[in-house]
Structures are given as structure tokens and as C-alpha cells.
Structures
1.
Amino acid sequence: MATSAPVQSASNHVVTPASIPWQDRPSGSSELIWRYSQNPVIDRNPIPVAARIYNSAVVPFKGHFAGVFRSDYRTGMPHIHAGFSEDGLKWKINHEPIAFVPAGQTKYEMEYSYDPRVCWIEDRYYVTWCNGYHGAPTIGLASTTDFKTFAQYENLFIPFNRNGVLFPRRINGHYAILSRPSDSGHTPFGDIYYSESPDLRFWGNHRYVMGAGQNWWQGVKIGAGPTPIETSEGWLIFYHGVMSTCNGFVYSVGLALLDLDEPWRVIARAQSYVLGPEKIYETTGTVPNVVFPCAALHDKASGRIALYYGAADTVTGLAFCKIDEVLEFVKKDSAA
Ligand code: BMA
């Protein structure tokens, strides 16, 4: 079920030894990405205050795992909570939301918070999320070392923006992020952009990376998912792509490979999605037909990846793949 190799960050820095969750591909299956047989790993009503936990981020922490979880309250508001797990499968999620401490003088506004990502850079974990600011979504930023105290910084951008995903190391001396400019609603457009910063405070050199529309399944909008994984061939990214149908949006998972030094340059981009909503917990829920990846654990020694994703805006799912197979697929299926 589990590997014994150390989990490493994409920058080859050993964050902490841990055994990532794993199941072999089911016999007879030829799927590139296969689901955990006991999905969902976080089911409905997981903590008293929240009816649904999904679109959440998980990282290695002190030999085990920690995470930041999108928790939708029965008031309808989403908030983010910290949580812990010995094995990456059974989660103890705090019943109280994260109480952010201002990193500076100002107490930053946060009307709602959702779709967190967590990224280890140099000496601490950084959390990014969609932060409600004067009724509009933008990208919130905080740091932590212990998942107890979180220092909150200024929002990275002015509204409207979502899906802020940091790179796990500086690139050409700068912090780097992918994001998706949007609107305040169920945005009917959206491309992925790259921005960089000397200090995580001032962001610029905004570059277009890739857009919606390449294929029907990603025809409406796209958005970055887990922290990019560094490989010798480039930054491997899982992202979500959205299709419009007469019954609403359908969210699937796509794959792309970005240049290591110039990540706004797309080396390869698969034309086919690699995980689509199929299982009952993905096709039925608050928002049917959604798979939305926010975290990937990568075991460098074995090449195994455990991918965490929100399903139907209701529960949290887990899926597995192998990095060499995924890299081969993204190049073979690419139109870039
Ligand atoms: C997006 C975000 C996600 C959500 C998805 C499907 O706009 O709000 O959190 O999973 O819609 O409802």
C-alpha cells in the first residue's frame, strides 16, 4: 500500500521522509491514472462544521502528512482548515478554520477562502487560495512551518484572479506563480499566466502560458492544479480544463510540460484529458461532473505520484500514476 522512500519536493530538497499512499494499477487496466479503490478519502460531513471537504492540498510533513482543506459550511461559505494524517488516507481535520495572523501591520480581509494549494519553498510552506476581497476573488498568500500558526500576507493580485499555484523553487532568482485571471462568478473564460516576484510581495513580468480552447474538454477555461513537479524534461503540471455542455460545465484533468527556465514556454500539452468525471462520486454531488486536482505527492525514488482531487464539489478523491508514463504520454499526445 505504501512506499518507504523519502518524499522529496520538486527542488530535490527532502522535506521529510514519508510513505506516500499507493496502490498498483488494477490488473487488466491500461489507465494512465487510476483511482484509489476506496475513494473518496474524505466523504460527506467530515467535520461538524462542514458538509463537504474537497479541492484541497496535501504535503509531506514531519514524516507524515499535513494539508489545507476547503471546507464548505452549511452557511454556504467556504473556509480553509488545517488537517493531519499518518498515511495520507485517514485525515484528522481541525474543526476550527485557520486563524491567520497578519504578517505585517494590517489585518487582511478574507470574506471567504477556497481551493487552497500548499507549496514548500526553501524553508517554509506557502499556502495560496482563492480569497474573497470586497466580494471579489483574488489570490491569498500565507506561510507556515507547523500548520498551527499561519502568517498572512497581502493578496498577490488585485481581483479578479483564481488558481494561484506557486513553483517550488525560485526560477532565475525569482519566486514564480501560475494564475488564472477571471471574473467574480462562474467565469466563462480563462487562460493560465505566469508571474514572478523578488520577494513574494511585488509581482510582475506577467507572461501568457497557455489558453483554453485547444480541445472541447478544455474549451471554456483552464486553471493550474497541484504545485508543478520538476523533472529533467521540464515542469510537469496537472491542470483542470472545463467544457460547456447543455447541462453545465464539466471539469477534467489535463497534463502539460513547461520549460524549466522559461515556464511560460509550453514544451508539450496533451490533447486528451487524463482523468474525467466517471465515478458516481464525481458525477453526482453539489456540482456534478467535476474532478479538480489541487495536490500531488511525488515519490522521486519510485516515480510514484499520488494525486488528490475534489470530486463533484462534494468529496475528496485520490488517484495514482507513474511519472515516467505520464511524461511519455504528455509528449506523445501533445499538439504544442
Ligand atoms: C470553479 C471553482 C471550483 C469548483 C468549480 C466547479 O469556479 O469555484 O472551486 O470546483 O468551479 O464548481
2.
Amino acid sequence: MTIAHILGFPRIGAQRELKWALESYWRGKSEREGLLETARALRERHWRLQQAAGLDQVPVGDFSLYDQVLDHSALFGTVPPRFAHPQGAEVDLDTYFRMARGRAPTGKPAAACELTKWFDTNYHYLVPEFHRDQSFALSSQTLFAQVEEAKALGLNPRPVLIGPLTYLWLGKTKGKPFDRLELLDDLLAVYAEVLKRLRAQGVEWVQMDEPILVLDLPNDWRRAFELAYPQLAGDRPRLLLTTYFGELADNLQLACHLPVEGLHIDAVRAPQQLERVADWLGGHKVLSAGIIDGRNLWRTDLESLLDRLEPLYDRLGKRLWLGSSCSLLHVPVDLAPESDLDPELRSWLAFAVQKLSELNILKRALTEGRSAVAEALGSSRTTVATRRNSARTRRAEIRAAMSAVTESMSRRQSPYSQRAALQQAALGLPLLPTTTIGSFPQTPEIRAARHALKTGALSSEAYQGQMRAKIKEVVERQEALGLDVLVHGEPERSDMVEYFAELLEGFAVTRNGWVQSYGSRCVKPPILFGDVARRGSMTVDWITYAQSLTQRPMKGMLTGPVTMLQWSFVRDDQPRSATCLQLALALRDEVLELERAGIRVIQIDEPAFREGLPLRRADWDGYLDWAVRCFRIASSGVEDQTQIHTHMCYSEFNDILPAIAALDADVITIETARSNMELLDGFAEFNYPNAIGPGVYDIHSPNVPEVEQMVELLKKAAERIPPERLWVNPDCGLKTRQWPEVEPALRNLVTAAQRLRAAL
Ligand code: GLN
Ligand code: ZN
């Protein structure tokens, strides 16, 4: 029979139960058993939801206490030496957490493994560390135990494994450099053992995730696929090789020819590959079509999808499976409790739970005929039509503004060198000016006030008053510290994206639409459903109030168009570039209003600029083109005297430096404290023309940086970038830090700048 299934379910829980259980365990407030019971109950609930929705298999191993890649490192015994784990022994819970966070209720603290982004999502995984004489050994029973758990509930478990090539690809070598592929044979032996065990447990199918098949793969990695999979033949369950997040493209034939029993493809991101894969797939293999979007939350247009699927079903029959495009990890759990959403908008949405029933409807329509699900199809049809025709997604004035965009709107009046002179004359800043990235500690007091405002316990006036008091306090602190360009501290912002989403037309925010970012950390991306329009000023009152308290320049603080786009669930009825342009136009108006109100320095944050890069190189230019243009449209309306800053908090720039330069921000502040300024080599070689503030204070650490340390970093920076174009600042915003660390750290930062100024 045609199988309907998902590649994975969000594990955090509709009420973030896992988050609370984890944090309480980490704080030593609850026992291991309590945490494990919460986890077990979540797995059961999520499997039962899939069963109730009529899905035929349940993924097992998609659940994780922290991260699925870390689970594999535990499974294979890839534990870095600093955790002093005896080779081959079971990786216990606290070793696991120490790898994730550096510390756990028991065991010696050690540096946590590195976190990095999972493909082009906002999910972060823990990077496996491989050393030269690495060996692997089966070191966790968790997966097998969960298979038993599912069986005991009467379900058909399909264990999820990250495939051997993807696992190696995601890792990093440590110590003497070597080729990770040298580890493949040893690793395959453990995979074979795992598969054999699963077979013995009666498992029919295993999901083998190899998402790197949608990337530009070097030839030796492609060859490694051909060598590896035959080695997994023998006594094992059937394998469903799963790919997602993009098109197989040049890896299509490779993927189709591997000796596995089924292939899953992403038919949402890359619908065009559906028929081609069907053509290339051998006559006995299963084709699992990932047709329900695991990356976004719009209801599916079921009827047009069926138009596509029916001919395929006629050809393949039960060899056609229906699945989610990728794991549902990347969407929130359940729409049902979102009663605050506008009913019409709500009718357009499907969160994870709702996606399960979409799969079921599609399966029934294929196997029993459309008439069997006529009602559901009718409702889908209505939804599609109301969304397409809705007045709330299109605004004439916004469409007009988009077509009125001219070339000159994305150009500053004069080139940087002229602007810099005018800005210097207007601002009168010292050499190596000091500033911060925007936010100051979000104290419990601030959060309590915002909570009280939401529940109605605090009036809007009282809230404004409290936030103003906070602003006054941070302005005074910054003046006392001697910083040159001040910020208002962002106390009024819950989140840099949500704050603006709440004020702009075209966005909705959910109450509980949480998505796991890493470990127990979740984000709540807003929903960008319609044309974006600015109702009125969003930041001007706060910033002008802050400016009124000081003679020094106050930096206006905005979230850039690309980051607003990247960190939201975005409408899929027009290109992302068009949506980004709308955001840019709205922000442009805000920038101009700030300027009119006398603000002379304006920062437009773009921390998500790089993560928007497509997975395939061939698509980079297209993206960079419109992303740069949107930033420029947002920032270029101002006079030459007004100084535009941008901020990005990561350190890989070398491959996109031309685009970074093309943003033409007067000042860019970036993260560098941990990379010892080496990252500036790229900027220097490229002759990056504008000013740079390389972070000299690693805000991710509670340590207070010493003056000497920062002076050294600045000296290194000054060897690469002329001092007239250097700024002095931390790596990123300070909202997660506490005043007792922030105050001395900034005092040292100012002193470091002063020392170097005197020396130059
Ligand atoms: N202005 C923001 C802050 O300081 C920037 C945050 C970020 O880069 N992620 O918090
Ligand atoms: Zn940052």
C-alpha cells in the first residue's frame, strides 16, 4: 500500500515541555527520571498524533534530548578526548549534555562542542569532532530502546539515521588535518552493526538521511557514496535514502542508482525533479515524494498537487509514498491553540499537526479516489481561493511603491570617501571610535514589565515610563563609561524581528509558534502573510528620547530587510525578493524619519544576511543581487552626513566580500573576537573600502576581557585596516549578558581604545 509518513516531528512539545524539563534538570532542580519520563511522554504523544492521522510508519530517533547529530556522535562513540569518555562505553546522559553545553549536573566541565547551522535552516547542530586516529564503536542503546518503545505501543517504527556520508560531512577534523573520508570504512562497520541490530528487532524500513546529496559535492564525495552503500548490503532492513532542502540536480543519477530500496526527494523546494527521479529510479524502488512543506506553514493546495501525483500514482502504484518535504522540526507544533490569530489568516495555515492530516487526505485521494475526501478537498480549494483573492495580502499603494522604485534609490548621493569626510565633520568622533551593537542586558525587571503589559497588568503608559527609565539608565552608564556613539539599549524589544513584525502590516505573530533553534532554545518566527506596510514610526520616539538625554550621537537601531525575511515564515505566493523589497521600502521610510528627527547614525542589522545564501553556488549571485539591493534601498535615502552602520554576527565573509562591500554601509561591525582578527586578512586583501568595527569582546562568554587582550586585538586589526577606518566595539549585542560583566568589559574596551589612540 502507498505509505504516508513524515521524516520527523518537532520534539520540543506544544507547550515547550522538553525545554522546561531540560532546564530544570540542568539546574539540578529535577531528577534524571523526570526528564526521561517527559521525553518518553512526548514521543508517545507525537507518535500517537501520527497514528491518529492515519500515517503508516512512525519515525523513531527523530526525537532528541538536544540534537540529532549529537545523538549520532553518541551512537558511534565520537566523543572528543576532553570529555574523558572510555572508548566503547555507553555515552551516559551527563556526558551527552557536557558535549552539548560544556557542563552537566555530574562530570567535569569541558569546552562544549561547536554549534553550527543545519543547512539553510535556523536550527543549529553540534559539530562532530574527528581526529586522525579516530575509531568508532557502538556506544548508545537509545535508538534501539526507542524502537522497542514504539513497538510496545503497537506502531510500525522506522528508525531515522543520518547517513554515513552526511555525518562525516557535518563534522570537523581536529589536530593534524586529514581527509574525513579516511574514516568512512571504520564508520561503515558501525552502521552495519546498527542496521543488523535493527533488523533483529524486526524493523522493516530505516530512514537514511543524506541531505548532502542536494549540495555541490566534490567528486571524491560522490565516489564515496558509490563505494559506501554497497558495503551496507546484507542483513539489514530496507533503506529509504532521504534527501531534502533542495534539488538533487547533478547528483540525481548517483542517488537513483545507489543500492537502496527507496529514495525520498524534496518536491516542495524542487518540484521539477519529481518526474525525472521517477524516470531514473529502478523498477522496484520506492519513490517517496516530499510534498508537504516542512519549512513553511501554509496549507497545501491539495487539488493541484493531486493533478501532479495522480499520473505518478498510475505509474508507480504503491511504490509511490507520500511524505513531508523534510522533518517537521522546522515548523511549530499545533495551530489549534492559536486563537488570537485572525480567523481568515488562521484558515490558511498548517502547523505540524495539521500537516499530518494533509498527508492522510492526499493518500486517501490517491488510493480511494478524490470523492472519498471531497469535503477536505473542497475546504482546501476554498482556502487557496480566499488566500489568492484576499484583500489583506495585496495593497495597491505598496504595489505602486514597488513599481516606482528607481535605480537612484539604491545609491547614496556620494561615494564613501566623500561621505566619510562629511560625517567626520558632523560627528567629530575621535580616532578608533567606540560603540556597542545595540542591546544592553534584558534584566528580569524588563521582562517582567513586558509580561505585565501583555497580560494587561501594566498600562501602556506605565510600560513606556518604565522603558524610558531603562533607556535613561543605559545612556547615563554609557556616558560614564566614555563610549563615543551611544545606543538606547533596546529594552522595548522582545526580539529584534518580532518587535518590528508586531508594528508592520502584513505580519502576524503567534502566541506559541515555537521552533527549536538549538537544545532548549526556541524561536518564534512571525508570519509574513501579506504586503508589508509601515503604519507609522516604529522606533523614532524611543530613539529621539534617548538622543534628548545626551550630546553624543545616538545610534538609531533597525532590523534589516534580509534578516526580517530570513527569520520569518514568509508568504509563498510571490518571490522572496519581492517580499524583501517591500520590507526594504518600509525600513527606508523609518530610516528617513529617524534622520528627519535628528538622528545622525543609523544601524541596520543584518545578522541573517549570510544564512540566506542558497545551498548551491550557482544560485548565490541571484540571491546576493537582490539581497544587496534591498539593503541599499533601505539605507540609501539619507544625506551624505548621516552615517549608516550595519552589523553581522559571524565570521565567514571571504567568499561574499564583494557583496558585503556592495552594501556600501559606512561602518560594518562584525564578530571577530574569537578568530583573533585573522578574518580581517580577507577584508585587507580585498581592499574593503569602508569602515569596520571588528568585535574585540566575545560577548558569548561571561569572561571580562582584559585591556591588554583588546589592545593586542586592535593592534592586529590596525595592521590590516587603516586606523582611520577602524571602530572599537563588542562582537554582538549584550542582551543576554549581565551588568556586572558588561560594565567592566566596556570600561576595559574604552581604555583599550584610548591606549591605542595615544600610541598611534
Ligand atoms: N542590535 C542587535 C542587538 O544588539 C543585534 C543582534 C544580532 O546581531 N543578532 O541585540
Ligand atoms: Zn550580532
